[in-house]
Amino acid sequence: MSEWIIGVVTEWGYFGIFLLMVAENIFPPIPSELIMPFAGYVAASGELSFAGVLIAGTLGSLAGTSAWYVAARLLGLARFTWLCNRLGRIATIQEDDIDMAVRWFERYGPLAVFVGRLIPAIRTLISVPAGLAAMPVGKFLAISAAGTVLWTGILTVAGLVLHENYATVEAWVDPVSIAVVVLAVVIYIYRFVTWKPIKDIG
């Protein structure tokens, strides 16, 4: 798995990182916890720059999470709920997930967007209440970017460290990365099978 991700990043470069992060924020095929460290690993080898990797990862993450913000803001509560009831099973969006994101946003406001970008469980869905509340686009993007840069920066630095110590950790890098993806797939299948229509997210 590590070789595949590294291969994608190496072959497609910054655009590959961007696409992987867009997909990760719309639905979770591969978690960013694997994408960005391996992108950082490639950067450490000299094929890409650290700044370029960080920018590509941040822009991809923002593009993915902004899709949910735009959908929520343009559609409004009733139509967004309608959309989720038709596509929610594919994206494994549960009513409880959105309820949690809404509660976070109602309690912490803009801070929830920043902190939410650091937490896997609500990283993408925090965009929904921000959109429903018509949070100004510029403010949403600025706060989201701050949280995203911090998160992707930490993961990219982890990749740099991985490169420097690859000989030491080589024996378990691939098994661990495969285990992470397998776990993500199992969770996805479980959520897909147990998904229920969303009644109300207000």
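The above is record 1. Record 2 follows with the same two-line structure.
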Amino acid sequence: MKKLIIVALALATFALAPKANAQTKMVGGAAMYPTKNIVENAVNSKDHTTLVAAVKAAGLVPTLESAGPFTVFAPTNEAFNKLPAGTVDNLVKPENKTALTKILTYHVVAGKLSAADLWAKVKTGTGKAELNTVSGGKLTVMAKGKKLYLVDEKGGKSWITIADVNQSNGVIHVVNAVLLPN
């Protein structure tokens, strides 16, 4: 009887346990917890060390730790490596903080837009939709096959490699290229 009660309690505890882990995704070798904010998660991703360093250099940490919600299109280290040699080193210099901030906030949209929300925007229009970025620019979302693409104001393209990485203050979509405003 005692064993039966223990087993019943264990099963009840498991059944009632929070399902937060069901939404946890792995990015850059680290778990991204939906209970943590964008910065708390991003600092653990080995694929986003350049982005985190740039966010720190631009002074955007307090903003991305705030309530939001935000949709962040997060370029990987590999995405930053596609830029011309020396670009990142130049951008993180204090005298280029304004340009760096504009580029980083071009990757952020106010509100929480899931991949399903982005697909819906694309399907209800002409096969593409415009997003207003925090920097004041526009990103175009397009679908091609099973992928969602982002096109920047200069015609550069990126696609979402990992979608719907939920955060306590928004959502991150990992992208494979740095998007550039005009």
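The CA atoms of residues 59 and 101 lie 8 Å apart.
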